[in-house]
Amino acid sequence: ETGVTQSPTHLIKTRGQQVTLRCSSQSGHNTVSWYQQALGQGPQFIFQYYREEENGRGNFPPRFSGLQFPNYSSELNVNALELDDSALYLCASSLERGRDGYTFGSGTRLTVV
Amino acid sequence: AQRVTQPEKLLSVFKGAPVELKCNYSYSGSPELFWYVQYSRQRLQLLLRHISRESIKGFTADLNKGETSFHLKKPFAQEEDSAMYYCALKGRGGGADGLTFGKGTHLIIQP
User: Fold this and answer.
1) How far is CA B13 from the centre of its chain?
2) What backbone torsions phi and psi does residue A20 show, to the nearest 5 degrees?
3) Residue A96: helix, strand or coil by DSSP?
4) Which chain B residue's Cα is nearest to A49?
5) CA torsion, points A87, B108, B54, B36, in degrees to nearest 10?
6) What digits encode the pLDDT tens for the residues B50-61?
7) Is the separation of the CB atoms in B37 and B47 below 8 Å?
8) What are the pLDDT digits (tens) for A13-23?
């Protein structure tokens, strides 16, 4: 059984650019959620995908968007990057929309310059 | 709106001493509460769920609905307990709200 894997581990982008982060969910999990963790803060919920449909969204603007694929892997896309988007982006997978808790990946460290 | 408060940013105790990490929540309903732990250079790991009422690594947490608290306790701290601890809440709306995390408490166990 494999855990949650995220790629890339680190990324540097320029303000105004677009970025795509990827996540492979744990085997057997059909739910993926994304979190943004700024330095010194707890993770903040961005959105969640369940069986390829978005089924919940936190307080993030529309330039944060995502996808979930038939194999339940997922992408997080951020358009028009801002300096404040610099953070650790965490992916978490679970069974059935969070039943039994979430398994987290190691994250992608995004730096916007 | 749901909110999780962890009032202590840093907690330092001596090995063998009791530990209590505080967590208070705000939610208009019946939430699920979790404790996650992050050891140095490792990913976030689930430590406890209030629903399972189990004890992991000697830690326990009881949901007190009257005080809206879910404090994490351990009677005798060990050096390997040093880590970042996050309390998290999940609404009962089919996971649509995701997890709401507190800002975390950095626990340091002194030898």
Assistant:
1) 17
2) -125, 125
3) helix
4) B96
5) 0
6) 887 777 899 999
7) yes
8) 999 999 999 99
